[in-house]
Amino acid sequence: MSTELLAPLDLAFWHLESDAHPMHLGALAVFDPAPGASAPQLLDLLGARAAAIPRLRMRVRDVLLPVGGAAWFTDKDFEVQRHVTRVVLPEGDFLTEAGRLAGELMEQPLGRGLPPWRMYLLDSPGDGPFAVLVKLHHALADGMRAVAIGAGIFDQIASAGAGRGAVNRRTPVPPRSWLPGPYEVAGMARERLGEVGRALGVGASVVRASRLDLRATTALAARSSGTRRLATAELDAATVQRIRRTEGGTANDVLLAVVAGALRRWMLERGGPLPGADPRALVPVSRRRPGGAATGNKLSAYLLGLPVGEPDPRERLRLVRTGMNRNKAAGPLRGAGAVAVLADQLPALAHRFGAPLAGNAARMLFDILVTSVPLPRSALSLGGCPLRAVYPMAPLARGQALAIALSTYGGRVQVGLVADGKALPDLDRLATALREELRDLHALVPTVPAPA
C-alpha cells in the first residue's frame, strides 16, 4: 500500500474544513449529446476512467510522525461506485437546473473515511445536454492539479494515457512507511529550523497586510449559513483579448477589472452605499513548475484592491493593471497573499491546532477570492459527447459570502460564482452584471484596425 505525507499546505486545507465550511473545489462540465451515448453508458465510462486515475484511489489517515501529520494511503477497499452517481434533473432550463443542484451538492462536505472526491452525472430527462459535476478536496489538489486529475475522464486524455496506465497497473507501487528512520528524523529537524526563519519573514509581511477595520465590505461578508448557491456567466474571450491589445496588460487584468465593475453595479443596485475602502481580492498564483512532480497544492497569491469606487470602466482597468504590476514586481512572498507560502513553512502540529484561528482570520486579510483556472485548449469530449463549457467553483473562506472562478474554453470565458445561499440570494444578478460590464468596457475602448 503506497503512502505519501500531506504537504503542509495540503494539511492546512484538510484541517480548515468544518461542516459549514467545506474545503472542496469543483467544476460543472456541460456536454452536448451524441448519437448512441446513453446515460448508463456514460456513467459506466465515467466510473471506469475515474477508477483508472491513481490519485483518486487515495484517502487520508493520521500518522505518528511528524506529530500532528497525516498521509495519503491507497484505499485497499476502493469502490468507484461510492464516488460516481447519476442524478436525473427535473424538467426546465437545463443549465438553471444543473446549477441549482450543483449548488446544493457543493454544500455537502466530502466523507473523510473515503478518498475525498465525488463525481455526479447530471442527466436531463430527454435527449438534451448533460453535465458532470466534479468535487475534489482542496487538500488533494490546487486548481491546476485538479484540472490535470479531472482531465483523465475526457476521451482525448484517457486515450493518450491508456498505454501508460496499462504499464502502471502491472507495476505495483512499492510501499513506503510513514515512520521515518533516524537519518530522516535528523533531516526533518534541520528542515524545521530553516523553515522557522522563512516563516518569520513571510509572516511579518502577512501581519503588515492585515487590517482590523472590517466594516467597509459587509456586502461580501456573512456568517456562514452552510448553504451554497451557484451562478454561471459566459464572456467572449475575443472581446477580452481586443481590450487587452488596446489597453495593455494581461487578459487576467481585464477580467479582474470586469469583476470590479460588476461588483460596483451589483452593490449600487442593492441600494446600499459603496464601501469606503476597495474590497480586497485574493488572486491565487501557481508556484507549480512546468513538468514538476508535486502532487498537492503549490500556491501563493496576490492581494489586489478592486476599485469599485471608481466610476470609469477604463480607469478601473488602469488601476487594476497598475496594482497587478506592483504585485508581480514585489513577488508572491509579500502581503496577505503569502498566507499559502506561510502555511507551507509551518509544522504539522500548528495546522492541526491552529486551523480554527487561521480560518477566522481570513476576513482580516481579504474579502473575496478571484481565481483563474487554466484548461486544455484542444476540443474535449466524453464518450463522443463534445464538451460545451466548464464552470469552475472555488471554496468559500470562513466569514465570506462570495468566490469567483474563471476558465477559458472554446472561445468563451466561463465564470463560476459560488456564494453563501442565504447571504447572496441575488447572485444571478451579479452574473448578469459581469456580462454588462464587459460590454460597456468594450464600448469605451477605441477600435483597433485589423492587421493588413
TrEMBL record:
Domain O-acyltransferase WSD1 C-terminal: 296-441
InterPro entries: Acyl_transf_WS/DGAT (IPR014292), O-acyltransferase_WSD1-like (IPR045034), O-acyltransferase_WSD1_C (IPR009721), O-acyltransferase_WSD1_N (IPR004255)
GO MF annotation, one: diacylglycerol O-acyltransferase activity
Cellular component terms (Gene Ontology): plasma membrane
Catalytic reaction annotation: an acyl-CoA + a 1,2-diacyl-sn-glycerol = a triacyl-sn-glycerol + CoA
EC number of the protein: 2.3.1.20
Pfam families: WS_DGAT_C (PF06974), WS_DGAT_cat (PF03007)
Keywords assigned by UniProt, alphabetized: Acyltransferase, Glycerol metabolism, Lipid biosynthesis, Lipid metabolism, Transferase
TM region(s), chain numbering: none
Keyword Nucleotide-binding: no
Top-level enzyme category: transferase
O-acyltransferase WSD1-like N-terminal domain segment(s): 6-254
Family: Belongs to the long-chain O-acyltransferase family.
Protein name: Diacylglycerol O-acyltransferase
Species assigned in the record: Streptomyces pratensis (strain ATCC 33331 / IAF-45CD)
